[in-house]
């Protein structure tokens, strides 16, 4: 509402300013014709100055351009043939200036504006026509551009004159008629020897609410409203963009992301709700993180005591083969439990917001080759590196420790299900890095490809708990590649027929 009031006030001010200019232009156009007639008469007969002043009921004088006005802008207007009207501070007198040529300026001082000036203009126009010797129509056509109102010839019988007005015009008087509603006026003088009259006008009153002025004000109003709407929308857009940035940061794991809240509008309420949600998420994740760490660390202590106790028992019952076998199985279970705790800690660290990754230039092909060389496969399975040569591979910006861990998890997963072969390949392009790990095992059904990277996921009998693993290895791989800005995929190997896991991420890291 306040904005509409401001726009209304500005439009009113614009209308006043436009009308101020239009009024000045209107007055200049009305008096210009009379000043042209005076200038022409004085150029022909300078001695006629007193008579013209008397007939016009005005003060007339001729001065140099530099003396008539000290204002440079007014001098330029006079030189271009424009009329300059200067009004006194009290508004009771006016001074009208027009350039006559040769550096001279006609000065007309007026104290009152009456029908005397209209009558003088009609007489001067009629006299100049008589002196010119031109046909009246040709004379009026030549003079029309100097006047701000029409000049025409009208038959006396078409004027609907009263007897007294008709008699006055027959005696040579100038008849000035003003419409009853006051919106226009005209001056009439009979053409000698003809049943016709010379009409000056009609001169229409100044209309402050003409369609041109209303159109300009409407355009200004729409522009102001448009600017106001743009300012409001842009303000909302900027604040929503900041909210979007905070949301993206929160999604990337920056749990301390917040938005500045100010104002009393819907965006402010949305920002407050976002900040409360972010605080709640941060608190829940903090609690979860502390719980996972506490439980994992607390489990390590009893696991270590159990392992120590098993070692003592093993040393005491070396002769009992059955007991030794059972103790060996228990030791393997404890080892598995220890590895599970380590996997849980790693997964929690990657899943609970952005980890602190130290990105540096590294040879990913060399990392993949290291994983292959470190692998300890069963005798029946062969692990080979079949990718791009290490010395030809481009360097990439990665966190070497985590990328090594991701490839290692994929190779370990492949070893659990492969029958004879596991192939590891690495390709470093100009923009992306790609690592593929393939095996000749039973593969993964296509309907399970979307959930294979889910934590603790269990698939069909071909990849059951008896094959080993905890359901976290591939989830860790997915999170590592996620923090590198890439994605992990699974498909079927065309070469070996089993599963094919692929990691793709940008070669250059972007914050």
UniProtKB/TrEMBL annotation:
This is histidine kinase. It comes from the Bacteria. It is a multi-pass membrane protein. Residues 234-286 form the HAMP domain. The chain crosses the membrane at residues 209-233. PANTHER family: SENSOR PROTEIN CREC, SENSOR PROTEIN RSTB. Pfam families: HAMP (PF00672), HATPase_c (PF02518), HisKA (PF00512). It is found in: Cell membrane. Its main location: membrane. Keywords: ATP-binding, Cell membrane, Kinase, Membrane, Nucleotide-binding, Phosphoprotein, Transferase, Transmembrane, Transmembrane helix. It catalyses: ATP + protein L-histidine = ADP + protein N-phospho-L-histidine. GO terms for cellular component: plasma membrane. GO terms for molecular function: ATP binding; phosphorelay sensor kinase activity. It is an enzyme of class 2 (transferase). Residues 294-509 form the Histidine kinase domain. SMART domains: HAMP (SM00304), HATPase_c (SM00387), HisKA (SM00388). Its EC number is 2.7.13.3.
């Amino acid at each position: 509402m306040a904005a509409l009031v401001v726009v209304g006030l500005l439009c009113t001010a614009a209308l006043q300013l436009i009308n101020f200019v239009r009024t000045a232009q209107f007055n200049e156009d009305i008096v210009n014709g009379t000043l042209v007639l005076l200038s022409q008469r004085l150029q022909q007969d300078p001695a006629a100055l007193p008579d013209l002043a008397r007939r016009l009921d005005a003060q007339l004088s001729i001065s140099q351009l530099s003396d008539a006005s000290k204002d440079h802008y007014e001098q330029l207007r006079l030189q271009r043939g424009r009329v300059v009207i200067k009004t006194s501070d009290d508004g009771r007198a006016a001074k009208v200036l027009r350039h006559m040529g040769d550096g001279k300026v006609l000065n007309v001082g007026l104290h009152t504006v009456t029908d005397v000036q209209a009558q003088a203009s009609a007489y001067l126009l009629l006299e100049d026509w008589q002196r010119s010797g031109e046909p009246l129509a040709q004379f009026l056509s030549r003079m029309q551009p100097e006047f701000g109102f029409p000049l025409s010839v009208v038959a006396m019988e078409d004027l609907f004159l009263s007897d007294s007005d008709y008699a006055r015009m027959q005696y040579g008087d100038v008849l000035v008629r003003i419409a009853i509603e006051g919106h226009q006026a005209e001056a009439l003088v009979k053409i000698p020897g003809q049943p016709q009259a010379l009409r000056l006008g009609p001169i229409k009153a100044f209309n402050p609410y003409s369609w041109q002025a209303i159109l300009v004000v409407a355009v200004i109003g729409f522009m102001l409203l448009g600017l106001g709407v743009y300012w409001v929308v842009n303000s909302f857009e900027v604040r929503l963009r900041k909210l979007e940035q905070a949301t993206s940061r929160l999604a990337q794991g920056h749990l301390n992301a917040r938005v500045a809240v100010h104002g009393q509008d819907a965006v402010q309420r949305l920002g407050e709700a976002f900040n409360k949600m972010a605080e709640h998420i941060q608190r829940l994740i903090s609690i979860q993180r502390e719980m996972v760490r506490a439980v994992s660390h607390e489990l390590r202590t009893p696991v270590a005591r159990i392992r120590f106790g098993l070692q003592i028992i093993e040393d005491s019952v070396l002769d009992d083969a059955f007991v030794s076998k059972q103790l060996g199985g228990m030791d393997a279970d404890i080892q598995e439990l220890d590895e599970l705790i380590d996997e849980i800690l790693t997964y929690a660290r990657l899943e609970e917001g952005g980890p602190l990754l130290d990105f540096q230039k590294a040879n990913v092909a060399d990392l993949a080759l290291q994983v292959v060389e470190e692998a300890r496969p069963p005798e029946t399975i062969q692990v080979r590196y079949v990718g791009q040569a290490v010395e030809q591979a481009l360097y990439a910006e990665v966190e070497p420790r985590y990328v090594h861990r991701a490839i290692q998890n994929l190779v370990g997963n492949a070893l659990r299900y492969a029958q004879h072969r596991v192939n590891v390949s690495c390709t470093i392009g100009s923009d992306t890095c790609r690592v593929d790990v393939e095996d000749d095992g039973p593969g993964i059904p296509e309907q399970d490809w979307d959930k294979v990277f889910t934590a603790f996921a269990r698939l069909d009998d071909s990849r059951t708990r008896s094959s080993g693993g905890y359901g976290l290895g591939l989830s860790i791989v997915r999170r590592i590649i996620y923090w590198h800005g890439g994605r992990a995929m699974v498909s079927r190997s065309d070469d070996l027929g089993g599963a094919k896991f692929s990691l793709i991420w940008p070669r250059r890291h972007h914050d």
